[in-house]
Amino acid sequence: MKNIGLHEPFFVGNEIKYLTSCIKENWVSTSGKYLKLFEEKIKKITKAKFAIPVLNGTIGLHVSMILSGVKKNDEVIVPTITFIATVNAIKYVGANPVFMDVDQYLNIDEEKTIEFILKKTKYVRGKTLNIKTRKIISALVIVHTFGNAAKMEKLYHLCKKRNIKLIEDAAESLGTKYISGKFKNKFTGTIGDFGVFSFNGNKIITSGNGGVIVTNNKKYYLKANYLITQAIDNGLNFIHNEVGFNYKLSNISAALGLAQLEQLEYFIKKKRAIRNYYVKKTEKIKELEIMASPEYSINNNWLNLIKIKKNKKIISIIKKLNLKKFQLRPVWHPNHLQKPFKKNFSYKIVNAQKAIKNLLCLPSSVNLKKNQIDKIINFI
Questions:
Q1: What residues make up the domain containing 296?
Q2: Residues 175 and 312 grouped into a single domain
Q3: Mean pLDDT across the stretch 196-205?
Q4: Are residues 320 and 171 both part of a single domain?
Q5: Angle, vertex CA 378, rays to CA 376 and CA 380, nearest 5
């Protein structure tokens, strides 16, 4: 049997047609029609007013930090369970992470985060200050982990009251939508001041590399486009009044991404079927359980996680399964325990370290077959 990857790209639409068009027309860099078409498609799917295509999701987070006004030595609240890129983006602007615990879906623990803001910070002259460190908390990052929508309604209101910018790391959750509460029918990434999606090769759709920032604020949209194109004030005379970045997505990546976006609805339908089959295969096995998804949202089921209730030797299991050509991995190591961040502030982190001990990320590619799922679950 051929290797079964954790999450492989799947090309079934206009990818070759659009890429060929780019090459024939010689528009392969940071200009061309596919950039605009890609931007418009993202807006149509997410219902966001503005979209800014960038080279990757990490860059999207970096730019969002800048536009949120996060300054050197400020603090940014972030969950400890996330890919390290989320935390690195905070350090890129010279700020420091404040780590929070996670809930049963491995998303930020809303109640603990609210408790921290209300009890461990104070609001002075329009700024929220960490009482212990005396530093300004200028932003909060909510990560929609593994495609599951984070619980954030109360946090949203508190951030508004406390002048804390809200950034959604929606790298994994394109197409995930709330179905109840204040945010009913809204997509992840479109609620905060900024939302950031990733189109890396392992995401639900890919542009090879690539990402996008979405916002409903025109001022942020214009400023982001200015910054990602080297902050050009006068292109003819090469005048630059600010430090800018070479962060804009290429037309050729946008062409690939557009073809993939055209298949998003089909991909989500397939991934729902994959998740349902994983649940069916494990529902009668006492030792195995597919991690639940939030009931307040329709989730894109980007990655499925399995809980192994009795045997906690996760690394040993991974090694054995990898020998069988099934690619599996554990959940990320908690970031508050990572060497670069051990000295940073963290608040009542208990669930995170317990939750990840016996969880495995399962192969979840769009083109995964039932007989492959059978083999994976039977071997586990």
A1: 264-379
A2: no
A3: 97
A4: no
A5: 70
Residue owning tokens 């600010």: 242
For residues 126 and 86, the answer to whether their CB atoms sit within 8 Å is no
The mean per-residue pLDDT over the stretch 213-224 comes to 98
> Tens digits of per-residue pLDDT, 16-54?
999 999 999 999 999 999 999 999 999 999 999 999 999
Predicted local confidence at residue 2, as pLDDT: 64
Mean pLDDT of 289-313: 90
Which of 232, 261, 290 is a domain's end point? Answer: 261
pLDDT of residue 244: 96
Residue 311 binned pLDDT confidence (cut-offs 50, 70, 90): low
CATH of the domain at 326: 3.90.1150.10
Domain count, the chain: 2
Of 235, 261, 287, the domain-final residue = 261
Q: What angle do CA 357, 363, 369 make, to 5 degrees?
A: 145
Run of H or E including 298? strand 297-298
Q: Cα–Cα distance between 64 and 85 in angstroms, integer?
A: 13
Q: Is residue 278 within 8 Å of 290, Cβ to Cβ?
A: yes
84 by DSSP, 3-state: which?
coil
Q: What burial class does residue 337 get, using C-beta atoms within 10 Å of its C-beta: 0-12 exposed, 13-18 middle, 19+ buried?
A: middle
- Per-residue pLDDT band at 312 (split at 50, 70, 90): low
Residues 273 and 154 in one domain: no
- HSE of 111 in the Cβ direction (CA atoms, 13 Å)? 3
**Domain match, 86 and 187 both:** yes
- Residue 265 — pLDDT band, cuts 50, 70, 90? very high
Q: Summarize pLDDT for 352-365 with one digit per residue, the tens.
A: 988 888 899 999 99
Contact 306, 358 (CB under 8 A): no
How far apart, in whole angstroms, are the C-alpha atoms of residue 278 and residue 272? 10
Do 53 and 187 have their domain in common? yes
Domain with residue 77: its CATH number is 3.40.640.10
Rounded to an integer, what distance in angstroms lies between the CA atom of residue 208 and that of residue 75?
Answer: 32
171 and 46, same structural domain?
yes
Report the distance separating Cα 34 and Cα 252, nearest Å.
8
Same domain, yes or no: 161 and 31 = yes
Tell me the three state secondary structure of residue 300. Answer: coil
Whether 274 and 252 share a structural domain: no
